[in-house]
Here is the input.
Amino acid sequence: MRRRIVTLLTVMAFALVLLDCRTQPVPLLAGGPVAGWPVYGADPGGSRYSPLTQINRENVKHLKVAWVYRTGESLTGEAAHKKAFEATPILVEGTLYFATPSNRVIALDPQTGTEKWKYDPGLDLSVSYSEFTSRGVSAWRDAQAPQRQACSLRILAATIDGRLLALDARTGTPCRDFGQGGQVDLKQSVGRIEPGNYQVTSPPAVIGDLVIVGSAIGDNRRVDSERGIVRAFDARTGALRWSWDPVPRDPKDPARATWAGDSADRTGGANAWSILSVDPERNLVFIPTTSPSPDFYGGERLRSNSYADSVVALRASSGKLVWHFQVVHHDLWDYDVPAQPTLITLRRGGVEIPAVAQATKMGHLFILHRETGAPLFPVEERPVPQTTVPGEQTWPTQPFPTAPPPLVPQKLTPQDAWGLTFWDRGRCHDLIARHRSEGIFTPPSLEGTIAFPGFLGGTNWGSVAFEPERGFVVVNSSRLAFVVALIPRADLQKARAAAPESEFGRQEGTPYAMRREPLLSPFGIPCNPPPWGTLAAVEVATGSIRWEVPLGTLRDITAIPLPFRWGTPNLGGPVVTAGGLVFIGAAMDNYLRAFDVDTGEELWKARLPAGAQATPMTYRLSENGKQYVVIAAGGHGKLGTKLGDYVIAYALPGAPATQR
Here is the structure.
């Protein structure tokens, strides 16, 4: 188990005039509840909600496999170690579309799982990529083209080698009028690139005739890492329409004052690697940004670093800033904004308020007004522990929402040490006692700091799901402590030799390298008490947690298949249906589960052939009237779950299962 949990260390650390987006959106990508799943998060705002009710609390126990598709993708060496099958298919005009970890785009018949076509972008697999995943693809319908014209419906996908692709949805052939022969090179104008470290791992956002992409940038390498610019391209031609840099390079930008000296000119990162959201009605795109580079030492970028670690709303048609809300000031913990900003409606005093729910690694859930960014529950700036590292200046306060309460514990003391026996509990007690541990936002130190929650804590790219009738935000979280230490550069070689299983970041351009590892007992079990993963429902009208349950068991991560429901660290997200159900994989045991949305009771689970570190989706077909639930089960190399190449659909009995 130790080896599998240790692999967590490297995870993540993933027209000539612009269209005025007040134009009526194409029905394919319209907002609001959908019976299908035309966008990665079900709708452009990422609600992950389906109004379907055929599968419900009463009959979910009868779900059976309807079909199985296998991609045939088999990776070896470093690629296999980093592979993560995180895809969520979309259903567009009668076809399922998704991408594999090596960016092969595949189209399936949604009733049988039969392959319609496959497109291979030809990645150079000899390159050492920082991440080896693709979470999904997007679709765009050209309202000006005849229905059956080639490329009138396009599948848009981005790659881990920095390309944006446009494919004909019927055949999978590149749309030659898009960019250069069907692709746009995203590696332009982002600074010096280290091979394999400038990528796109999340699906593009689509609004009007624009396709908008962020980027995933390898962490902890150097101060002047690649620029984290967000760009919008014409969906017909691939021409660049606008770009926005989350590091304020313009001296006239008011945010420039939050970056000391000329640090904004040389700092990279602050990129948006996760999923973007759009609000077509308001002509807004919502950007979740990350830490400036490098993650764990900010002496070369002093002050609060505005636009980084923030939810940012841009005018979609122009890329102009509308508002921003920073969830971490001067980030030193890799507490980037990992989750899609989910567009919800908050009902208060009989009034419906358009809002954004932003989940974070800290376990904070910020509820913001969608049009202004103003918090809808008070946010307090509270004093936090300060640095002892020469050259660093910690920001004195951090923002804490007064509601909802934190979804994960935020302090770990020696008295909290956990273990299976008195002996390993004592060892954990001593490990905690020897490191600096003063609660959340305790800064990295030379002697070593306990980060709790760690960089894999709280909510990650799986994001949240919103149940509109109850006003519930359903969210899964991880709880795992890490030790982070800064190492004077002259001592790096010695430190590597002393801790060969630890993760190191060189942080070039600073006086310090970085070391981190999970805080584990000698048995390889977390020193913080379980549950190590949870699923919860938050009532957004009141900010209260309605229920919380452990997510996952130890069955597949120990030598003996222990059934203990202590929860596990998890990657992937939930979906909610009007049938009163929450479907989720995500945990480190190989199951897809269904929970009661009102109580959190587990109602059903299906054993999977590999890990399900992906978000499921659901749809109903007019051809046979059946509702399906689909999950990618291909495992996660860094998390250490079982690898595979499966896409599996479940439905209520009534048709024979098929396998392709």
Summary: The helical segments are 2-6, 77-82, 263-266, 422-433, 492-498. Residues 422-433 form the longest helix (12 residues). The chain has a mean pLDDT of 93. The CA atoms of residues 55 and 111 lie 16 Å apart.
